[in-house]
Amino acid sequence: LCPTTYEFAQKTKNFSGWVRVQLQHKANGLVIDELLIELDRVETLLSSIAMGEKKWKQGYGWVDEE
Fold first, then answer.
1. Do 62 and 54 form a contact (C-beta atoms < 8 A)?
2. Cβ within 8 Å of residue 45, ≥6 positions away
3. How far is CA 16 from the centre of its chain?
């Protein structure tokens, strides 16, 4: 580990367990960076729906309000 990641490891409870979980996620196709991108996309969509900027169109999904 570099000095920065060493500091992170020292502050993370059960760091080796955390690493094992991350490796298992990756093996299952769950990549954190991709999940964060998807989370941002969903958050933006939900915000647009809540603000009335999107409407549900059968057969298309959520589309921009016209």
1. yes
2. 54, 62
3. 22
Q: What is the mean pLDDT of residues 5-19?
A: 93
- As a whole number of angstroms, the distance between CA 40 and CA 34 comes to 10
User: What global pTM score does this model have?
Assistant: 0.55
58 token code pair: 């059968």
DSSP string for 19-49: HHHHHHHHHTT--HHHHHHHHHHHHHHHHHH
The C-alpha atoms of residue 63 and residue 56 are separated, in whole angstroms, by 6
The per-residue pLDDT for range 13-48, each reduced to its tens digit, is 999 999 999 899 889 888 888 889 999 999 999 999
Type of residue at 55: K
The C-alpha atoms of residue 34 and residue 58 are separated, in whole angstroms, by 28
